[in-house]
Amino acid sequence: MADPKGFMTTPRQDWPRRPVEERVRDWDEVYVPGALLPIISKQADRCMDCGIPFCHDACPLGNLIPEWNDLVSREDWRAAADRLHATNNFPEFTGRLCPAPCEAGCVLAINQPAVTIKNVEVAIADRSWELGFTPPRPPERLSGRTVAVIGSGPTGLAAAQQLTRAGHTVAVYEKDDRLGGLMRYGIPEFKMEKHHLERRIEQMRAEGTKFRTSTAVGRDIGAAELRSRYDAVVIATGATAWRELDVPGRELTGVHQAMEYLPLANRVREGDLEVSPLSAAGKHVVIVGGGDTGADCLGTAVREGAASVTQLDIYAQPGAERDEDVEPWPTYPKIYRMSAAHEEARDLRTAPAANADARLFAASTLRFTGDSDGRVRSLHLVEVDARRQPVSDSARRLPADLVLLALGFSGPDKEDGLIGQLGLELEPRGTITRDADFATNVPGVFAAGDAARGQSLIVWAIAEGRAVAAAVDRHLTGSSQLPAPIGPYDRPMTV
């Protein structure tokens, strides 16, 4: 460790965000450009180089966090970039989008604010690009084997890059017109500007990966036909079957799924549309669901000029500190967190009927009511207790011209033809069945990411992509030197 007393002498300092009034007027990333680099070496000094670094286990990628913290402390950016990329194909994605379970597992977090691992990671990634330390790495020779990867989210891209670098000829099939999956059309620009994604895709093209956009396997091309063309197929379509809210009034115009709303806002940013057909401008917006997707809807609606925005969370408001009896260190705790979008809602007072940050906790939706034209106008809710039972005399009504359902996802889409045409077996919860080698019941077909694991974090998605690549490489050649950071049955640390 560069400074053996750094964790005692240096307080935690996060990457500062731009002023709210400034950032809600644009779609640029919320952080102050250039403000991270001057502070990051000292923040890396806070790493204690623990004998047993639990941050390794908290991160499914097995990131070598103490090692690259030490290198950043010494400002050895090339070596830091090498150590970071040894375990993570896309650290500029995870450094911006991951909720950082590694920080929850930081040993320093037992009794102090954790090391700013996520900030160090993104600083290394961005510096690596700036200094030219991230060149394409095409294979020295080709294996003569071919692989189709279905889906271009983080799992599909990670699998494709690993398999391409191993010498296989890889084609990625994406149903949308642009690559990236949810990173392209589900993640708002203010969380990750899309030039980071474009840069990685160009790197992969230079390495030899082929991409086929606007091609839905199961519709535009038969799944069985695709299987016959390739030596192996990796299904990485994600969990796109959204959860519904079965309450009266769901059929009213103006009640939409979050993933109907967010892609349109992103298409405006891509230049496909001048204005989103579901724009929140001038509307009273209610978001049902307290997770990250709901927060993405919140920040988007604020930027579109909503009259008000309220977010409903069925869970009670968590405390500010970890409950050691329920979620002891080093597990990832459910605590009160203030995202950039919630900070914006708080400062702009977007939800006068809700708490300070636009969230109503312990709130359950009863029904929607509308006007004579069948458009939603109100959301009726009730407060619930810890068992999700209604609290008497707590019913209330919120004005609602646009309701966004952000309730998560249950598994891959069953209607696109892919699952049925291949005859894939499914788990009771709707995900694709696979064995300990990521293989499905169909020979030569593998499943990875949210399509098989279920809805998870971007670090788990990339870890799945790297692990399934090793499994496919082993299937094709009999052995593999590719890293496999996780198995298909591994799960986050819990009590």
TrEMBL record:
Keywords: Amino-acid biosynthesis, Glutamate biosynthesis, Oxidoreductase. The lineage of its organism: Bacteria, Bacillati, Actinomycetota, Actinomycetes, Kitasatosporales. It holds the Pfam family Pyr_redox_2. It comes from the Bacteria. This is Glutamate synthase subunit beta. Residues 38-69 form the 4Fe-4S ferredoxin-type domain. InterPro entries: 4Fe4S_Fe-S-bd, DPD_II, FAD/NAD-bd_sf, FAD/NAD-binding_dom, Glut_synth_ssu1, Glutamate_Synthase, Helical_ferredxn. It comes from Streptomyces cellulosae. NCBIfam families: GOGAT_sm_gam (TIGR01317). Pathway: Amino-acid biosynthesis.
